[in-house]
Amino acid sequence: MNPQIIINGKKITMPKPKIKLWRQLIKFMEQQRRGELGEEQMLDEMTALIVVAFNHPDVTPEAIEDNLDFEGLVEIFTYLGEWVSQMVANKMAQIPNGVTPARI
Question: For residue range 45-101, what is the model confidence (pLDDT) as tens digits?
């Protein structure tokens, strides 16, 4: 089941992730690994990633802060990272590994 968020009493389900989300998630993880994000920046980036993931006009940084507790934010963010990683791993497994013989 795709992650869901409740904004002002309305349940919103996250659609399949887009490449834009994957790029931003990689950027976030690299910044975090290098220690470039302070605590407030990290929270802002996590919120921004969730906004991109849900891709819905009602899901804004302000709406997330007003409607989601910290535990819910971490839960969705963790699920998001695992979900996107799993989808990429599944797609990568479908790519052939062998060398294809050249056609003459």
Answer: 999 999 999 999 999 999 999 998 888 888 888 887 787 778 777 777 777 765 555
According to DSSP, the residues that pair with 13 across neighbouring strands are 4
**Terminal alpha carbon distance of the chain:** 48
- Pairwise CA distance, residues 83 & 60, whole Å: 21
**pLDDT of res. 74:** 86
Tokens coding 15: 């659609």
CA-based nearest residue to 80, from 24, 7, 8: 24
Q: Find the largest Cα–Cα distance for the chain.
A: 64
pTM reported for the whole predicted model = 0.76
Angle between helices 19-33 and 39-54 (to 10 degrees): 170
Find how far residue 94's CA is from the centre of its chain: 22
C-alpha pair distances (Å), 44 with each of 10, 39, 60: 23, 9, 11
